[in-house]
Specification:
With 505 residues, the protein is of the alpha+beta class. Helices cover 41% and strands 25% of the residues. Strands 1, 2, 3, 4, 5, 6 and 7 form a seven-stranded antiparallel sheet that branches. A five-stranded antiparallel sheet has the order 9-8-12-11-10. A hairpin with a 2-residue loop joins strand 11 and strand 12. The longest helix has 41 residues. The protein is elongated and about 95 Å long. Bound molecules: adenosine-5'-triphosphate and magnesium ion (MG).
Length: 505
């Protein structure tokens, strides 16, 4: 349930049909505010007879007359008498003297909202008179269309019921406006509306011409000049909607230019008064979409190739390890294979990701068997994950996975060097600003006098460098608190590595 329907069911006796109509009205009323150059306030009568403001929209074409949001305001019966009168009579109240609100001179008008033959609410139309406007052709065309639409509101025919709610990303009045007569001929086009057609290749004027014909000519010209025998589907849809005077949204594409349109039919007492057409040049938007899509595809392709290359490097190192006779050299190469493979895992995940974010839980679940493989000498040591690391950007994911690889490897390799049974637990805790990962083992514990800062072996050096410089986080290695329920060897506490990484908001 929306805030509006909550308010209506709490405060009024309006039925669900009327509530749905008001919901749709506030979904579609930006065009009314823009065409009228006025703030619109939707008022309903509460059970105790007051008027309650349940909706407010400001014009994008003129200064507001209500700098404060008015929703929730209550007024006693008769205080804004024109609203009460319009609501009771089910009509419109116009041409009132200015009122002063918040130091702004306002011309208030009232339009009853009718649904199912009854007046269910009243719309306040408040025009800011502070900056007087000299009526231009555009302004007169807007106000005329507004008058038609307000009439339809009192008649109950606006907003029309359409399948699927209106598209809030559709064109706005300021993007391009045209007024058509009942025959689909353009009677007025705003400068932006005309520009949209100019970009599609129109050289002549738009006024006086059949909009569907103009569209067809532009498409034919862009296609090479021959008038195709079959009318393009986009044009027949437009023509049909204009002829039937039904609400319709669609797109016209001529050459590389795409214009989106929305048809809003006008009518009085069921007879057509032509329609308003809103137009928006979508070309730049479409190009940007396409550019982003192809960029996204290339990035994923690059991740895929990086992964392949890293796997090749790992394979080469593995081959080389087999030729080594010295056990220490073999072990060192095996460590490198694991480091390289863990980075490859990150790229593999990124190659499959749509938004450039890596799913760390998935990576970790692939990493765990890899670590266990290498430490095959200790098959009795199980690694488990608890909690979620979630998704991270590529910049954070790669160092984090490398760090986790080192820490897990150490836990298995050093923690259980004198035993063959145990449990390594990875616990993740993520809040808005931080990710904390603990890797705890129930192994033999850190050697006497161990200090992370003093340790100069490669593994922990890598860990410290990555944590501090790439992730701006912190790492601690501590003696693990004894959890007798978990410990396979309750007599020894084991080790806990605590990694804290700040996350970008
Ligand atoms: N979970 C652990 N349990 C017990 N000892 C540990 C643990 N983690 C680290 N250590 C100790 O810290 C030392 C340093 O670890 P580090 O990873 O830096 O080097 P390494 O594992 O010995 O060699 P490599 O450079 O191949 O990683 C280890 O040799 C070990 O003594
Ligand atoms: Mg190590």
């Amino acid at each position: 349930m929306s805030a509006l329907s909550d308010l209506l069911s709490e405060q009024t006796d309006l039925g669900s049909d009327a509530a749905a109509h008001l919901q749709q009205l506030v979904g579609d009323w930006q065009i009314l505010a823009d065409l009228a150059f006025a703030d619109l306030l939707l008022w309903v009568r509460t059970r105790d007879g007051e008027l309650l403001c349940v909706g407010h929209v400001r014009p994008t074409t003129a200064p507001t007359s209500h700098p404060l949001h008015e929703v929730g305001r209550r007024v006693a019966a008769g205080e804004l008498s024109w609203l009460d009168r319009a609501l009771d009579a089910g009509g419109m109240i116009r041409d009132r003297d200015p009122e002063w609100g918040n130091g702004i001179p306002i011309r208030p008008e009232a339009i009853a909202v009718r649904h199912g033959g009854k007046s269910v609410a009243v719309m306040g139309r408040d025009t800011n008179l502070d900056s007087p406007r000299t009526p231009s052709e555009l302004e007169l065309a807007y106000l005329d269309a507004a008058a038609e639409l307000f009439y339809m509101v009192t008649e109950g025919s606006f907003p029309a019921v359409v399948e699927g709610s209106s598209d809030s990303l559709g064109p706005r009045v300021g993007d391009g406006f045209a007024r058509l007569d009942t025959g689909g001929v353009v009677r007025y086009a705003s400068p932006n509306g005309l520009s949209a057609f100019r970009r599609m290749g129109l050289t002549a004027d738009l006024v006086g011409r059949d909009l569907a014909d103009v569209g067809r000519d532009l498409i034919d010209t862009a296609d090479g000049g021959d008038r195709s025998a079959v009318e393009p589907g986009d044009i027949s849809a437009l023509r049909l909607a204009l002829a039937a005077a039904v609400p319709h949204t669609g797109e016209l594409a001529a050459g590389s230019v795409t214009v989106a349109y929305q048809i809003i039919p006008l009518s009085r007492r069921a007879s057509s008064h032509g329609c308003v057409v809103l137009l928006r040049d979508m070309t730049d938007l479409r190009h940007r979409d396409l550019a982003l899509q192809s960029k996204d595809v290339s990035i994923r392709e690059i991740h895929h190739r990086v992964k392949n290359n890293l796997q090749t490097v790992a394979a080469l190192l593995r081959l080389q390890a087999r030729r080594m006779h010295h056990p220490a050299a073999r072990a060192a190469l095996a460590d490198s294979v694991q480091r390289v493979s863990s980075i490859a895992l990150v790229h593999e995940t990124l190659a499959a990701s749509r938004d450039g974010a890596a799913d760390l839980d998935g990576i970790l679940d692939s990493l765990i068997p890899m670590i266990s493989d290498v430490s095959a000498a200790r098959p009795g040591v199980a690694i488990r994950r608890k909690g979620h690391l979630g998704e991270l950007s590529a910049e954070l994911a790669t160092p984090l996975v490398m760090v986790l690889t080192e820490l897990l490897h150490n836990a298995v390799e050093h923690g259980y060097s004198d035993r063959d049974r145990g449990q390594v637990l990875i616990t993740a805790e993520r809040t808005i600003g931080t990710l904390t990962v603990r890797i705890s083992d129930d192994g033999r514990g850190l050697p006497q006098g161990f200090s992370l800062e003093a340790s100069d072996s490669l593994g922990l050096q890598i860990v410290r460098t990555l944590v501090e410089s790439e992730m701006r986080g912190s790492i601690r290695l501590v003696r693990r608190r004894v959890d007798p329920g978990l410990a396979s060897h309750p007599e020894s506490a084991g080790t806990e590595a605590v990694l804290t990484v700040p996350l970008p908001r």
